[in-house]
Amino acid sequence: MTIVGAPVVPSRLPVAMGVIGSVLGVTGTSRPQISPDLQTAAEVIDLASRAIGKALRHLSSIGGADVHQVLAYDLAHAASAVETARSLLDYGAKGDHEGLITCAYTADMAHDLMSKLIGRESLWGLEPNPLATAVPFISTYRDPEFVASLADVQGPRHLDDDFEMVQDTFRSFAEKVIAPRAEHVHRFNEDVPEEIISGLAEMGAFGLSVPVEYGGFSEGGEGEYVAMVVATEELSRASLGIGGSLITRPEILTRALVKGGTEAQKAEWLPKLATAEVMAAVAVTEPDYGSDVAGLKVTATPAEGPDGTPGYVINGVKTWCTFAARADVLMLLARTDPDRSKTHKGLSLFIVPKPRGEAHGFEFTQNVRADGSTGKMEGRPIDTIGYRGMHSYEIALDNWWVPATNLIGEEGGLGKGFYYQMEGFENGRLQTAARAVGVMQAAYEAAYDHAHNRNVFGKNIAEYQLTRVKLGRMAVLIQAGRQFGYQVARLMAKGEGTTEASMVKAYVCKAAEWVSREAMQIHGGYGYAEEYSVSRLFVDARVLSIFEGADETLCLKVIARRLTEK
Fold this sequence. Notes:
CATH topology of the domain at 1-150: Butyryl-CoA Dehydrogenase, subunit A, domain 3
Structural class: alpha+beta
Shape: globular
């Protein structure tokens, strides 16, 4: 990533503007003849990058993200948009249409950055109008007729043949098995159908990150990460609630085990995760501590089980534990060191077995303690406006016992739970971005189809400029988010890209809110009716900026902090 360290060199923008492709003879609703200008796009990206780099250094000098939260938040999103644009440059070189998408997105990014800056230049530590030389480029590639011309063709993905096969396979399953059930599950708040779980298991979806020696398909390299992104998008395109999120939770536990598990634990749990013999839920968040993981209160205290078996009893309350009823195990983060001053270093990660429960609430007891005491686990469902099927719960645990062998890393894993779970959460953010792309793709397709089949004032609404501009911008944002996701996947395969994973999540999830909203708006009154899928897509998109790291926390505590440190 080059934002903070971008070299401060004289901009060539004034020269580049002299060779930009111009609009040729645009009249009425005729398509503007604009050529892509990637050299100038790169100049605009560099100009924006240098402005953000200077602002980040200024932020660091005046107290940092905790003091100037609005500035830090805006900088995090602006930096994420710039990196999204940068990721498109290689894509834009693959063809004229790809180049036009790249230029359109870059102009959109620069315009958004300028709007953030107006009236706050001194707060950012910048001179007035730092992007002034980019205005001709922005004017050309934000021209309404030009953006409208992008409404019909989203551009190829440029996947390798192997990933095209992954896309085709998961799209076929999603359309045949998931999509026909999506609306019913959403409207009646039902469970994920078992045939979806078993079908994905047969396809190997839960073993994409499980190493081959443990029955999965992972052999390292970028294929594992890119395949996960491609599969997640296609499943989410059919349904976020009963498709796109199913493979995320086993993925998080898998990566935690691969990172910190003992050999015996890997041999025990990874094959079961790969085949869906064991389905997992993640129990990290607590009622008073959302993203502030260091403050967690749930405790795990040493206690003997039957026949003196060493183990731990877990006490406390977890919340927003998605899929907890259906899950066979919870990946649970608990405090094993009562010294709260140790914050993250006092936390350990456990695999907590449990029976399968009812979607609308469950209560279990266990009698495995050597002293005859009883453990209890109670799950209270949390009703939500969207993201239905997975179901979220508040879970109260009272002396729930687990063997010491279920502490990930066993004795060597004490105090390392936070770091093990973050191994999965970083990739979970990338997956969430892919889920957002899938939701956006479905929203665009629904809006495009409705626009071409709806007449208003004697005219098909797809012929109106405003509709076409909305569809054109949707197409650009979707491809930008998709290509950035591919790039982050490749970075993570090399052990890099943790900051970029947070950036792609922050940017794309906010974009999904706009795309789904405008898709609903294109439907007019029909978009507000539950019988149209776009209403489901709208409420589903809203959760994306909340889970896997709330947008504000992600921007302030992760993106802005890491960028200022650099």
